[in-house]
Amino acid sequence: MRSLERGSEPALGRWLALGLYKYPLIVPFVLLWLRRKKLIAGFLSVATILGHISLVITGWPSLLGYPRYVWGTEHDLKYAFNTLPGLTPNLRGLISAVVPMDHPGIKIGLTILLSAIVLRLMMYAAGKTSSADSEGQRALFALGLAGTVLVSYHIYVHDLSLLFLSLVLVLETLLSDPPIPKWTRTMLYVCIALLFCSPLYLVLTLRYGPLRLMAILLLAFFLGLLRRISSRRMQTGGVISAPASAGR
């Protein structure tokens, strides 16, 4: 985030690459910035180095077998926690709540379709946000984090800590009292309040199990941010002037 605020796109890409050990929570976020060539170049440079290090440590057999191992843990009853999609607060978990277990093809198809839609909306928002618009960039950063959680194939409850920065950025914007439609402001405040409510996670995870219901809340948060980015674009007419303090 600091690299983004400084306008250092290569550094942003390099920092993101360091998170590739948790690649389901990095790759979707990087796709948000796909049109920024310097950022992608920085990301790929570090990703290539890390890939070579992994190859030296594990060798080709382990590296090539890793995807099969991950897929196996997702569908092996020995890993009970992973076989409960109700515990995944993302699109995959939410879809598993409405699609019968005996229709895996429909579940996979819907997951791919909705994930593609969310990714496309993220990229659309990125294309509509000026790099000179600091508030818009923060909203886009927050949108990207929320979208990344939604499209991740598997996510644990502690991985939702990724949203902390997203919530803080949006709350900071709301408290500055910008011209935001009332319903959008209310929806964002409600989402932030519930996402910050840690007892809610304990109840859904340990007592009832359907942590996937959090995906509905994340969708509302995502759509609220998308609406905020669109409304800001209309308010400024697509032209953003650099703040007076930018050269300080």
Structure description:
The chain is mostly helical. The protein has 2 domains: 1-83; 85-239, no CATH class. It has helices spanning 2-6, 9-17, 27-31, 37-74, 91-98, 104-127, 134-151, 163-175, 182-195, 198-208, 214-236. The protein is globular, with a radius of gyration of 19 Å. It starts with a helix and ends in a 12-residue tail after the last helix. The model is unreliable at 239-248 (pLDDT under 50).
Short synopsis of the structure:
The protein is an all-alpha fold.
How are the elements arranged and paired?
Layout: H1 2-6, H2 9-17, H3 27-31, H4 37-74, H5 91-98, H6 104-127, H7 134-151, H8 163-175, H9 182-195, H10 198-208, H11 214-236
Helix pairs in contact: 2-4, 5-6, 6-7, 7-8, 7-11, 8-9, 9-11
